[in-house]
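Handoff note, outgoing to incoming analyst
You'll be picking up this chain. Sequence as last confirmed:
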Amino acid sequence: MKEGAKTEGLSLDTLAVHAGQPPDPVSGAVMMPIVLSSTFAQRAPGEHQGFEYGRSGNPTRRALEACYAALEGGKHGFAFGSGLGASTTLLSLLRSGDHVLTGDDVYGGTFRLLDKVMAPLGIESSFTDLSDIDVVRNSFRPNTRMVWFETPTNPLLKIFDIAKIASVARERGAIVVVDNTFATPVLQNPLALGATAVLHSATKYLNGHSDVIGGAVVTSDEELAQRLAYQQNALGAVPSPFDCYLVLRGIKTLPLRVRHASASAGIIADRLSRHKNVGRVIYPGLSSHKGHALASQQMTGFGAMISFVIKGGLEASKSFLSSLEIFACAESLGGVESLAEHPAIMTHASVPEAQRCALGIDDGLVRLSVGVESVDDLWADIERALGKS
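Most recent structure output, in case you need it:
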């Protein structure tokens, strides 16, 4: 795809391969070069060629940021060294005395950041079930400056109405940040539904190979973009050029991986729902899921994450996870390999036990990240492990 070529109207499959990555003008290389330089020569003081210092900008990172923006249908993309680095930079836009209205079911690291890092700085958060739009309206305060939520959520896969929440937030002048890590731009486009900014842990599906830690933010809001660019440079939570290259490489197969894994997850969720050792299956693609109808409207697929409760509680769930052979018992998600984890012990251990229990993150809850392996092999692995739980 030539430099300057228009990307409007191109499908996500094409953008994933080409966006932000024209052939190198020097060598003609069709793959984005890894520019490792920490500093860049200037023709004269203040006369540079678009880059001054590696923290402030880098050609490989710029390509990744352009790709991020194109995938989410936004104007400005920002790359970070981790998902939490992206989150921290967004939250640094707030001031002491500001309030964040956030979903009650969020990634444990997000909860820790809001509750243990931002709260002592005077930035208060309220963790609220955003499923009911009346509850959303009533939860706003005069000092609410940001609404922050995941959908589907982690790990209970709740579905929140992005368009309705964004509409309420706009009326009150609040920024809306949607963590789109689980759905990815393949299945959901929050900016098109009214969100101000989209957040990703690029470690997960965007990179897709469990070998990079990264984060992303995309927005079309010009004022927010200017503030983010300043904070990105000032805080310095940026990725290395090599990591940017790896994420660009991973994104090229993003649509293929997500669609394949999602199809397999639908099959596995249906089979789990009929297994005698399973008490409850949480998957937006099942008609039994409370948010199924809404997910069908605002998503183009239901994703590759499944949570389910094993009968027998903690011991049964630990036995299940220890018995898996293809699924690895590990934190994280979104890689080509399938992973299984215990939220209460692993990813959400930082959430207080009483709050976990109130949400439904109990000792029997297991979360699966379905990868791209054969669905029959994956099911055989699950079925064998359930038989031992």
